[in-house]
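User: Hi! I have a protein structure encoded as tokens and I'd like to know what sequence might fold into it. I'm fairly new to this, so please keep things simple.
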């Protein structure tokens, strides 16, 4: 093996550029020391805060409140579910809708019978008393015939709505 000897002093500028200076090392050490101190202080204040919260009982109280709210929500949902099942199984809503339809049909029939009776009375009793003739005139003036049509129109609309609702329940 061949060795070479250096023929003079080594260049000191090459060594200083590769190794940090003593001043830079001290700055780094001081920064690490300050970071460790800040970390220690943060840990102490966090520990104190956790202890204060734990000692106050707020966590237990909050957990109890959340548990009570969850139970109430569960009970409400169960009640709604039970009621829905009961209505579906008993078909009460369908029965109520059918009863409404029957009632509206009876009202229409009653209105038809009343109209027919009025027509028959006017044909069979040509002589009217003064009171009934005045009432007939008032009816003509107020548009009594149009009022009957309006009632029939409203009944038909209500009956159609009820039929739609009953079909939706079936």
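Assistant: Happy to help. Inverse folding works backwards from shape to sequence: for each of the 170 positions I chose a residue that suits the local structure. Here it is:
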């Amino acid at each position: 093996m061949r060795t070479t000897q250096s023929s003079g002093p080594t260049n000191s500028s090459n060594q200083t550029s590769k190794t940090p200076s003593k001043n830079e090392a001290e700055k780094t050490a001081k920064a690490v020391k300050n970071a460790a101190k800040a970390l220690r202080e943060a840990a102490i204040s966090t520990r104190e805060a956790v202890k204060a919260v734990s000692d106050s009982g707020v966590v237990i109280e909050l957990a109890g409140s959340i548990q009570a709210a969850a139970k109430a929500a569960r009970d409400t949902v169960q009640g709604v579910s039970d009621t829905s099942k009961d209505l579906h199984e008993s078909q009460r809503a369908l029965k109520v809708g059918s009863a409404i339809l029957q009632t509206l049909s009876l009202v229409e029939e009653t209105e038809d019978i009343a109209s027919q009776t009025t027509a028959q009375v006017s044909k069979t009793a040509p002589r009217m008393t003064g009171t009934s003739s005045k009432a007939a005139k008032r009816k003509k003036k107020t548009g009594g015939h149009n009022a009957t049509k309006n009632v029939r129109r409203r009944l038909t609309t209500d009956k159609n709505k009820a039929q739609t609702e009953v079909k939706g329940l079936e």
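A useful reference point when you look it over: The helical segments are 12-18, 22-56, 58-90, 92-124, 130-142, 144-169. Feel free to ask if any position seems puzzling.
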